Amino acid sequence: MREDLNQGLIDFLKASPTPFHATASLALRLEAAGFQHLDERASWYTEAGGRYYVTRNDSSIIAFKLGKRSPLEGGIRLVGAHTDSPCLRVKPQPELQRQGFFQLGVEVYGGALLAPWFDRDLSLAGRVTYRRDGKVESQLIDFEHPIAVIPNLAIHLNREANSGWAINPQNELPPILAQLADPEAADFRALITEQLARQHDFSADAVLDYELSFYDTQNAAVIGLNGDFIAGARLDNLLSCYAGLQALLAAPDVESCVLVCNDHEEVGSSSACGADGPMLEQVLRRVLSEGDAFVRTIQRSLLVSADNAHAVHPNYADRHDENHGPKLNAGPVIKINSNQRYATNSETAGFFRHLCLENEVPVQSFVTRSDMGCGSTIGPITASQLGVRTVDIGLPTFAMHSIRELAGSHDLAHLVKVLTAFYASAELP
């Protein structure tokens, strides 16, 4: 099972270079399992025992099973994650021609570790909006092959490279795509038009706009002398999206279960499809009883917010509180912060710990050092939007927000097992 789950994650990561592709990949897997797509612009008819999913902006997705037991009686079991990861986004007018090279101007999305982006084989993917036959349409594209690189400056020309060199995103991050012969002009929209024709077999009249991101073409892999690790891009947080999906598909149909994967977590979640927006509440209000019954249902419910946790790094162990250093392959981590950067409380933490113990899943705790700042997740945001009790958890990882992150190869199976048990749990605290 562990090997199958890991390979499934690797395949999912490859198919999901952007939040748009991740949402499409999740939707395909849901439809194959009998989930019905609901259009937010149409009327819905749902029934107990039904399986449904909703997307918004092509980059956020909510999937849910309506249990045979009334949600008003048993509450709903929610697992939350996010589809986006730090990356380099192409600017609207990106063409740069310097020293005979065709480059693209980029904007840094989220809190990316920038140094690992140098000297990687990069491709480009995302959503394109275009005009065809007088109509405005959109499609996903993925160049798939390496088409760009950001070469490092040789150590001979940058003697400070190993001494804390500050990277200037405006000047040093534009990837190189090609050499141009004078007086050849670079035209990025023409490049997109050609890709649309190759990938979707039609000719667009005009490319109107796009949301395109560079990504590393190196596939994720199980690595290490004994295969102890999974290395890959976007483990934060597609790993949790994939684990949540596997748990939802395996869950029985007795209780009402929800998987929500929001976009824009890495930039604050404030959007129509982000956790700080109305999407989740609007979907739940359309399928649950209204008024007093809605509030009663939410108060009987629980959200497991699943987002990666910081494992204790052997070279930087002093960056952790000495009693709270999660280890790779030692199970999911309960994340706690008294200033509400995480939404965990003693009741929700205790319930999650109980689930782990009951299902023989190892569990750990994380509290950041008292002299360091603490990151956050969709947990406190969703809790404050919906009023639902929440526990923040995640699998331990190294190199979070790098172009290539590292997790334990045993931990995915641990997370899927406990999330499946959560979806099946007859009683919530």
TrEMBL record:
Gene3D superfamilies for this protein: Aminopeptidase i, Domain 2, Zn peptidases
Keyword Metal-binding among record annotations: yes
Entries under CDD domains matching the protein: M18_DAP
UniProt KW keywords: Aminopeptidase, Hydrolase, Metal-binding, Metalloprotease, Protease, Zinc
Gene Ontology, cellular component aspect: cytoplasm
Similarity comment: family membership: Belongs to the peptidase M18 family.
Protein name as it appears in the record: Probable M18 family aminopeptidase 2
Name of the gene encoding the protein in the UniProt record: apeB
